[in-house]
Every structure is written in structure tokens, then in C-alpha cells.
Write a structure and sequence with these properties.
Number of domains: 3
Order of helices and strands: HHHEEHHEHEHHEEHEHEHHHHHHHH
Pfam families: AAA
Distance between the termini: 42 Å
InterPro entries: 26S_Proteasome_ATPase (IPR050221), AAA+_ATPase (IPR003593), ATPase_AAA_core (IPR003959), P-loop_NTPase (IPR027417)
Strand content: 5-15%
Family: Belongs to the AAA ATPase family.
Largest sheet: 6 strands, mixed
Shape: elongated
Protein name: ATPase family associated with various cellular activities (AAA)
Number of helices: 18
Strand order of the largest sheet: 2-4-6-7-3-8
Structural class: alpha/beta
Keywords: ATP-binding, Nucleotide-binding
Radius of gyration: 25 Å
Number of strands: 8
CATH topology of the largest domain: Rossmann fold
CATH class of the largest domain: Alpha Beta
Length: 395
């Protein structure tokens, strides 16, 4: 479809505040494109529909969550967190809903639905109580670094209108291991006293496999203390654990968490939306967002944010030059080699004809010659000639 980028932009704008009837029309357009064999354009509209539904799907059905699942006193800005007796260092940070980012993190449809179901349960805790069942009170969020696990936990607290008692467990471990067990007990006693969400970040720092022969007996007792306090906490509030290293967790720890939510690295369509979200106040062309998403295959949301920052800096520094997006990507790949998937990096630094052919044939990118010329800072005829050149063989 010759003018599909314009149609795509119109659909994106319309879906931002779409009624069910309008969404249905976009779905009809997608289905018609599929029937005509224009699967790339249809897939693009599917991505827009999924993204537009995300804000609605994740939010709970009630604006204010039921308080049936939490008890205790109300936390105020004047409430001081518990401290280590030896060092007087705080054992936790208290974060109030008003200071948490309002926008939900971007995940695929499966994760989005799962998060929505957890919040929905907690929002309807009173109704569950009448049927003799309870909402899930513990959730373990795990996955690679930079995928938005902590941001998701904080956002869930905001949706539930609960302050967060945030604990970095690696900082909780004292050189005096007996003190660590006492700190854990004090921390849970504090969380159980107040209406809050207890967030245990870097969970693997303390919840280690107890059968590891390299661990001393005292660490095992610390893990047991943690498990016992998790069991007691179920009757008092909601607890989220976060880890980048799920394989390090004791099997007994896994059993304590009713919800075990894996956050994967983002797929192509989600990478586009993550790049778009970080671009403000810039509004780059669709071809730029698609190329950034293509280039960041295997990257986390945090790594995409880093690339977008490089893009924004380049837009300021090179605003009067003809430097294309490919030059910016090459700069990023050189300065952040370990953060770029090897095959994408090899293509980026290959001869132009090889790179342009890969971009032209990739079904996700769906690039025209004009698109390639725009991101490469070259005219369409030059791109066409370079695509037509045979790749040089290396003997």
C-alpha cells in the first residue's frame, strides 16, 4: 500500500483514545490487509492495537484498590524506616504513590494480562473474602537486567495506592550474620505494622540455595529466617520479590510466591513502543523507530533507552549536517559493543550493499528504498545501485 505510513499514523492517533467501534474499524482494516496478502502492514496494525489496549488492560477495574488485603497503620512522610542497630543505616526506603511514574511499563500482551489479573484480584479482595478465597499476596518478578522489573513493581503499588517499603537486600546483609537475621525480623515487623507494599529488590543476594556447599551454616539460617517471615507476612499485606538471577533462588523460596512472573526482553513491536516512549519531545519518523527496534534485537528496555539518548544527542549536535541514523547507530555500537547483538553489529559495519539488502528484505523493517536512503543519509538512486552490487567475496 503506497501511503500506508500515513494510514498507520492516523490509526495510531485514533487508537490513543479509541472507542470500541473505532478499534473495530482498525481491526477490519487489518483483516482486509491480511486477506490481500499484505501481511507486513497487517502485523504493524496488530502492534498498534495491542499497544492501545495496554493501558486499559493493565489498570484495575476500580480506581482505588480494596483495602481488604492490607491491615495496620497508615504510613506518612513523617514515618521513619527501621535502621540497623550497629550502624544506624536505614534498612529500607519509603516511596509514596504520588512520586511514582504514572505511565505503565511496556510489555507483551501475555505479561500485560498477567499483571492486570494480579491487580484485579487485589482490587476485589473484599468480594473474594465472601467466597472464602484470598487474592495472591506474594509475587516474584524475575528476568534479565534492565527489563523494567522494579519499575513494574512500583507502578503496581501506585495502581493500588499503597506506599512502598523498598529494600535492597544486598545492602541488608551485615558482616555480622547474626545481625542480618535480626535486621530481617525488624524489617518485616515494620512492614507488617503499616499499610504498604513490601518490595524486596535484588532478592538473590540473600535467598541463596541452602544446599550450596560454599555457603556457611549461618547464611542458611538467614534464609530460613527470611522464609519464616515471608510466611507470616501473607496475613498482613502484599510482598513483591525481584531478581535478575532466578537460578540462584532456593526452591523453598519459589514455593513462597503465589505469582511467579517472568519479564522477557522485549519483542520487535514492543521495542518500537519503548523507543517511542523515550523519544519525547522528539517525534522521529516511523522508519527511525523501526530501525532502532531492529538494531536492538535482544536488548533490554534500559539498553533501548540508552540508544535513544544517543539519538537525541545526535539530533542536537548534527542538526545542520546530513549525518544519517546509521552513523548514529555505528557510534553507539562502537561505544557500547557489548550491548549490541553480534549479528546486528556485524551487519551495521558491513559494506553498504550488504546492509541495505538485509534492511530491504527484513519483514519486520518493511523498508522501501526511500526509507533506507533516509536513515542512511543517501538518495534513493544511490541506495538502489548499492543494493544491486554483488557482495565482495573474501578469500
Amino acid at each position: 500500500m503506497e501511503h500506508f505510513p500515513i494510514i498507520q499514523a492516523l490509526c495510531r492517533a485514533a487508537l490513543a483514545g479509541a472507542s470500541p467501534a473505532l478499534r473495530k474499524q482498525v481491526e477490519r482494516l487489518r483483516d482486509a490487509l491480511n486477506e490481500e496478502g499484505q501481511t507486513k502492514q497487517a502485523a504493524s496494525l496488530t502492534g498498534l492495537i495491542v499497544a492501545s489496549e495496554r493501558n486499559v488492560e493493565v489498570a484495575p477495574s476500580k480506581l482505588t484498590a480494596s483495602r481488604g488485603f492490607v491491615g495496620g497503620e497508615v504510613l506518612t512522610p513523617n514515618t521513619l524506616p527501621p535502621v540497623d542497630r550497629e550502624t544506624s543505616a536505614p534498612l529500607a526506603e519509603i516511596i509514596f504513590p504520588s512520586s511514582i511514574q504514572a505511565e505503565p511499563p511496556l510489555f507483551n500482551a501475555a505479561v500485560t494480562h498477567a499483571v492486570g489479573s494480579v491487580i484485579e484480584e487485589l482490587a476485589n479482595a473484599d468480594a473474594f473474602h465472601g467466597m472464602g478465597v484470598q487474592p495472591a499476596r506474594t509475587c516474584l518478578i524475575f528476568g534479565p537486567p534492565g527489563t523494567g522489573k522494579t519499575r513494574l513493581a512500583l507502578w503496581m503499588a501506585r495502581e493500588l495506592n499503597l506506599p512502598v517499603v523498598l529494600v535492597k537486600l544486598d545492602g541488608l546483609i551485615s558482616s555480622f550474620l547474626g545481625t542480618t537475621a535480626r535486621n530481617i525480623a525488624n524489617l518485616f515487623a515494620f512492614a507488617n505494622r503499616y499499610q504498604c507494599l513490601l518490595l524486596l529488590d535484588e532478592f538473590d543476594a540473600i535467598a541463596k540455595v541452602r544446599d550450596d556447599p560454599q555457603e556457611v551454616g549461618e547464611i542458611k539460617r538467614v534464609v530460613n529466617a527470611l522464609l519464616q517471615n515471608l510466611d507470616l507476612r501473607k496475613e498482613n499485606g502484599f510482598t513483591i520479590g525481584i531478581t535478575n538471577h532466578a537460578r540462584l533462588l532456593d526452591s523453598a523460596v519459589w514455593r513462597r510466591f503465589e505469582v511467579q512472573l517472568e519479564i522477557p526482553k522485549p519483542e520487535f513491536d514492543i521495542r518500537i513502543e519503548i523507543a517511542r516512549a523515550f523519544m519525547a519531545p522528539l517525534t522521529p519518523p516511523s522508519s527511525h523507530l523501526r530501525l532502532i527496534a531492529w538494531f536492538t534485537q535482544g536488548a533490554s528496555g534500559a539498553e533501548i533507552e540508552m540508544l535513544v539518548r544517543t539519538y537525541k544527542k545526535a539530533s542536537v549536535v548534527n542538526k545542520d549536517s546530513a549525518q544519517g541514523l546509521l552513523d548514529t547507530l555505528q557510534q553507539f555500537a562502537t561505544r557500547n559493543a557489548a550491548r549490541v547483538e553480534e549479528s546486528r553489529r556485524a551487519l551495521l559495519f558491513s559494506e553498504p550493499g550488504t546492509l541495505f539488502r538485509a534492511m530491504k528484505s527484513d519483514p519486520d523493517l518493511n523498508f522501501s528504498l526511500a526509507d533506507i536512503g533516509e536513515v542512511a543519509g543517501r538518495d534513493k538512486s544511490t541506495v538502489s545501485r548499492q543494493i544491486g552490487k554483488p557482495a565482495r567475496s573474501i578469500n
